[in-house]
User: Fold these one by one.
Assistant:
Number 1:
Amino acid sequence: MIYCVEDEKNIRELIVYTLEATGFSAVGMEDGKALFKSLKKELPELILLDIMLPGENGYEILKKLKSEPETKNIPVILVTAREAEFDKVRGLDGGADDYVTKPFGMMELVARVKAVLRRCARQTEQRELTCGKLRISVGRHEVFYGEEKIELTRKEFELLLYLAENKGMVMSRNQILGHVWGYDFDGETRTVDVHVRSLRQKLGKAGEMLETVRGVGYRLRGQEA
Ligand code: CA
């Protein structure tokens, strides 16, 4: 799913139409408000973000996206009216993956989208997180403690990955539920407790790093005690 934030209706519809014609699913929205509303329902693979928008501009929206753990890894391509008006440093230092200048050809846009998605897939494939001797290979969905491989279910893996991405921070049950099970998941927070318990068991000694913070949630420490 690709989100296209663009206030000019004609351009927005053309982009969405082109993306869908090339095999992507795409949804258009007119401003930042609509974007953040949609993000609560579903996280896209990529966001095409116009800079000149009513309300919050593209730079401000980008900054917000990059400051939230749920959205900071979503690749963003900035769309700018004229190169001269585009603050490249502000855009790329702000975490944008690429930018395109209007008027652009639709095939050029599709090529940029594909390139950014490929690059991000490669980064994810190679990405590894560590907490002490615990090593999480993001792309391969594998977990090692020292040399020993730990077999986890898909949800246990996603739970561990989420805590490791936010290591040292306490994540509430609702945050975990929203991230690992999806925002629309109509479950109970007890689901989280059950999975934490089995995850902790499978992690063995490394499970000691997974702390319960009473009345708040869970935290993965960055190191063994
Ligand atoms: Ca605009």
Number 2:
Amino acid sequence: MRGSLILGFADYREPAQRLAAAAGMDYAEVQVHRFPDGESRLQLPAKLPEQVILCRSLDQPNSKLVELELAAVTARELGARHLTLVAPYLCYMRQDTAFHPGEAVSQRIVGQWLARLVDAVITVDPHLHRTPHLRDAVPVHRALSLSAGPLLGQWLEGRPAAPLLLGPDSESAPWVKSIARLAGLDYGVASKVRLGDREVRVTLPDLEVAGRDVVLVDDIASTGRTLAAAATQVLAKGACKVDVLVTHALFAGDALEILQAAGVGEVLSTDSVRHASNRVELAPLLAGALKTVAETD
Ligand code: R5P
């Protein structure tokens, strides 16, 4: 795709560079200076092609969203006519309704705001539990929601003993089902009640786990409490081992320690969010989606 440029940011440099290589595009970086008071000053290449792809994952999102607005507006001033956002992790998708009176519906507000900035959005496994299509949340001209399921399924195929896949809550059902189907594995889905940011109650499905290797599958690991609660119960019921497979490794605070304390063995994730557990690179998947956007716009 000649005449297109991927504009990355230092905090997501290597995955964005891998994407540029996979898509056959040039890569340049937005220079970000953080002033002592927390404001950001951005500098883009002084001249830009018509097609610009902003590539940054939106974990730890608040300052990144402001910087995205500064970058997108400036990119248009510098000559970009078509802007695509590649955000392998798309933030604020979980708050899709006002769960309590007066709450902001962040999914809709952030989605509409992104849609005013860019012409196309590409993301991976967005948390759209009650929202049928990405475009309903982010009403851009082209909204591509990709699944890491096939890549995660490939990792499972290499394991010596066929594991039982377990989704820790009903919202994980689409991921666990599709990965189980692709890898030809048994699966179950637990149910969860969330009592607070760091407090959940998980109830296992009626499945025999004794003597099995179990892999917990979810889209997002944030505090790790959901996965830890599921792991504790599965091991108490006699599972041989419990590993974890997630698309988005947010792993806030002490999440990894909590998982280890719960008896979790291996933790594996995609590089949608940079983390020591990253094993699956999304660049080929994202490059294919960029090609689709280029061909249809
Ligand atoms: C929500 O339902 C998601 O699928 C995850 O289960 C959730 O975000 C995990 O959160 P935590 O790691 O904080 O328990």
